[in-house]
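Memo to structure team: turn this sequence into structure tokens by end of day. - J.P.
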Amino acid sequence: MIKLSDTQRILLATACQRKDGSVLPLPGSVHRGGGATKALAALLRRAMLIELPTTNAAAIHRTDGDLTYGLFITKAGMAAIGVDDDIDAGSSTAIGELPAVIAVDKAPTKIALVLELLASAEGIPVTELMAATGWQPHTTRAALTGLRKKGHSIQRIKRDSITCYRLLGAA
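Reply from structure team:
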């Protein structure tokens, strides 16, 4: 079961009741401000809402030049509140054909890159980690410490009098 705040549930339920699936305008019980903004951001991060171009003035979330964007519920958002997406088209809660969440290939994070480099059997020196990530020495060492705190087993070894690090086990 997905844990949602009351505000998030209200926003998703409101979007389900609209034909276009728009979460905006906000319902009367939700006031625009920090709570609503955080709830919308969390729903976007969790792919329960998606940002799409819109011409409906009431549904505009943001503008970018001549383009206007609104927030719309996804199938994941409907499932999170227990709404079946096979609703009769004639009912008042019918959602039109909503686009599936678009899978975007994200660039790997720097910490994922560090983990990949640490996986080599011979280890990798801090200077190479710095060159790969663009980090300063103190940031690179802090990242290694953070990985250890998360449960990764990182071993420090010497290779030709150079200190190298390698990953022994993952969290």
